[in-house]
């Protein structure tokens, strides 16, 4: 047999022999309250005897050597820490929908989209730029609402001054006030009629499930009206360019190819972005 093939069996036999002749080591755990450490057979990790827990506080001192405990210290005693973390993650998941539906984001993004389409620039500015501008304008417009929610709901709840139900009602209050100020009365009456409820014209008597869709419809209507007004000067440019091309017999040339540079020039000379953004922001005040 080749010596190289005998090396592995010899090493295996040597290891087995060492394990067989190695003296046995016994380990035991005994109660030693004066030195609750590990490392030899005298000391132990046992802190209390089994079955000695009498109160819930005693259960926190269970004899478990290896464990990981996460404690949420900023609680007011009304909601468990893990549940609060779960609710926070859930809120983060639905936050984009809340930002789109309960704030000024819908009107702003639609107006900017109409502006880009009227310029016939297709992808300039790109969607990422329009969404970014809309988000920052939304934070600017909604800053008083966010501040009211933080001061009137979040801070008292963290300090334990209000319960969960009161926290939810207080937090939704500034959003309801904002949405009601931008919602037309006929939209509220429409959904109140569909829901089979009567309304006396007071905000407090409007269910949130009715106010939100009424607010969305009003936002879409307002955004499309602003978009139509933005389209008017650009339509005039298209008509003038199309008439000039027809008069010169250049009917095969798309009018938008010639009119787009004139639209951009007019938009820049009139400081269009300033007018559009300032105009849409002022509609909320």
Write down the secondary-structure element order.
HHHHHHHHHHH
Mean pLDDT: 76
Q: Sum up the overall morphology in one term.
A: elongated
Number of helical stretches of at least 4 residues: 11
Strand content: under 5%
Number of strands: 0
N/C terminus separation:
96 Å
The whole-angstrom Rg is 36 Å
Decide which structural class fits the backbone. Answer: mainly alpha
The parts where pLDDT drops under 50 for at least 5 residues are: 25-31, 35-39, 63-73
**What is the helical fraction, as a range of percent?**
55-70%
Query: Largest sheet, if any?
Result: none
Layout: helices, strands, pairs:
Layout: H1 3-21, H2 56-59, H3 81-101, H4 105-119, H5 127-141, H6 143-158, H7 164-181, H8 185-194, H9 208-247, H10 255-269, H11 272-282
Helix pairs in contact: 4-5, 4-9, 4-11, 5-6, 6-7, 8-9, 9-10
Structure description:
By secondary structure, this protein is mostly helical. It has a domain at 99-282. It is built from eleven helices and no strands. Helix 4 packs parallel to helix 9 (208-247) and helix 5 packs across helix 6 (143-158).
Characteristic key phrases:
11 helices, 285 residues, elongated, mainly alpha
Give the gist of this structure.
65% of the residues lie in helices and 0% in strands. By secondary structure, it is mostly helical.
